[in-house]
Amino acid sequence: MGVMPKQLPVLDPPTATMCCAPLATAPLTAEDAKDLAAQLKAVADPARLRLLSLMMANEDLEACTCDLTEALELSQPTVSHHLKKLTEAGLVYAQRREGPWTYYRVVPDALAGLANVIAPPAAATVA
Amino acid sequence: MGVMPKQLPVLDPPTATMCCAPLATAPLTAEDAKDLAAQLKAVADPARLRLLSLMMANEDLEACTCDLTEALELSQPTVSHHLKKLTEAGLVYAQRREGPWTYYRVVPDALAGLANVIAPPAAATVA
Prior knowledge:
homodimer, three-stranded antiparallel β-sheet
């Protein structure tokens, strides 16, 4: 694996930027609908949902590429592809590197924002 | 448009059935990930997001196919196709018919459930 790099400093999560107000606030514009659909498409994949869940099930919301690859029984290139999609959507970020592995962490505010956009008004749900 | 049918009784929303616990509870199984991805895919489409938003922006969470077709500037068969996808995913239902039109309403608990599954633990988000 070559020379072991020094452990990198812990990175702050990227700022979560949400495209849109909650769906119930006002009819979504065509432009916002396109952006929101793209972010939801990044999540709407079985492997990517499992990756997010593996990170979120840890108290620190992160997981090592080594553990992610093993848990999903997928090749490392496939896992890297899915992590890239999630990173591009702003839902996870490469938090730190240890030797050949990278620790990925979810961007909690991005996922909370996404949940908030699709949630109906609280008054509409069964208590 | 043929004979005007009598107004149908208001229907109760179908019971919302969620496939999975919140992602942060425990690593998602492969089976649950497949079901959840299918439901998220139904939402991850610009036209369907706008349809949901048009319903949710009304206080009673419903909208007439006449208004939906006009607002999206799509053909009625296209709007019907998207409403069918959302209905199959358990996210909306045909609530009542008035003449040639149908009123569709969101299933609030299904959308709340979906939001709840992807939301991170409250402690992880910026207050």
